[in-house]
């Protein structure tokens, strides 16, 4: 049995790890066509504001294989495809083909001589000092691939306390969550501040129709009477690759998975609730709004999914090798 204190401990997240004051950084990142020493990858302060508003990005993980002799980038091509889709939606024209970006990611992993699990962040943003506030379509863009190591929570006993946020999830009519844009994270950040101030770990955002959408950095699913339900991709969520992966793995494990509207009150009646995302991996929600979920620890479906996901990302499973890009040590 996990103690309440352990359950309450917020896991290291993408959001947390973005605050990296204490790290020296890797040796290299990839910027607009070549490797650049990490410390020299500077831009002018005037370039930050509007370029940041317009930028889109991806979050990708490369896991050390179970036999310890290579890195396995998980669903690399699908992440890169989503980067192009985000860029298309905000009219950023990425001047590199997918082969170049795939090579760039591999180059960054090799150049930094990583022998640990690595998080990779490719992002595209308007180049130079953008003076036109609305960042017109067609301006040239820069592309950077940065990276850092992380500690995986897969296969560990963990859980988090979530709370339904008073903030509404951004929506298709104003800021489409389908676009993986840094700007969208202001919404999640407000919800996170509220959740933390009220003593919870993570918020769960409802959409403009009052239905469950997602967390600030992950999608969500509930298990009730053996059926897994997760908000559909038109519920105000990012089209998450971990969500898609989880649906596939859960069905292979014999579970029924339904993509549908999920009500807030279903969170309170669920036997299990879990987040799914590249950064958060499979994160059990053990309390929602002060109500214990099931036994207050990860339930059997969540544990089975965690184990299956862990096995796939480390290349232990014979299945889904096509989801992995190998980078031998
Ligand atoms: C808002 C949001 N939803 C969902 C996800 C999960 O997406 P993926 O599984 O593709 O990482 C993320 C991941 O960063 C996210 O930021």
From TrEMBL:
Range of residues in the leader sequence: none
Origin: domain of life: Bacteria
Gene name of the record: ilvE
Annotated EC: 2.6.1.42
Family recorded in the similarity comment: Belongs to the class-IV pyridoxal-phosphate-dependent aminotransferase family.
Record InterPro entries: Aminotrans_IV, Aminotransferase-like, B_amino_transI, BCAT-like_C, BCAT-like_N, Class-IV_PLP-Dep_Aminotrnsfr
The protein's role, per its UniProt record: Acts on leucine, isoleucine and valine.
Pathway annotation from the record: Amino-acid biosynthesis; L-isoleucine biosynthesis; L-isoleucine from 2-oxobutanoate: step 4/4; Amino-acid biosynthesis; L-valine biosynthesis; L-valine from pyruvate: step 4/4; Amino-acid biosynthesis; L-leucine biosynthesis; L-leucine from 3-methyl-2-oxobutanoate: step 4/4
Catalytic activity: L-isoleucine + 2-oxoglutarate = (S)-3-methyl-2-oxopentanoate + L-glutamate; L-leucine + 2-oxoglutarate = 4-methyl-2-oxopentanoate + L-glutamate; L-valine + 2-oxoglutarate = 3-methyl-2-oxobutanoate + L-glutamate
Annotated Pfam families: Aminotran_4 (PF01063)
Record keywords, A-Z: Amino-acid biosynthesis, Aminotransferase, Branched-chain amino acid biosynthesis, Pyridoxal phosphate, Transferase
Keyword Oxidoreductase attached: no
UniProt-recorded name of the protein: Branched-chain-amino-acid aminotransferase
Record GO terms (molecular function): branched-chain-amino-acid transaminase activity
Cofactor: pyridoxal 5'-phosphate
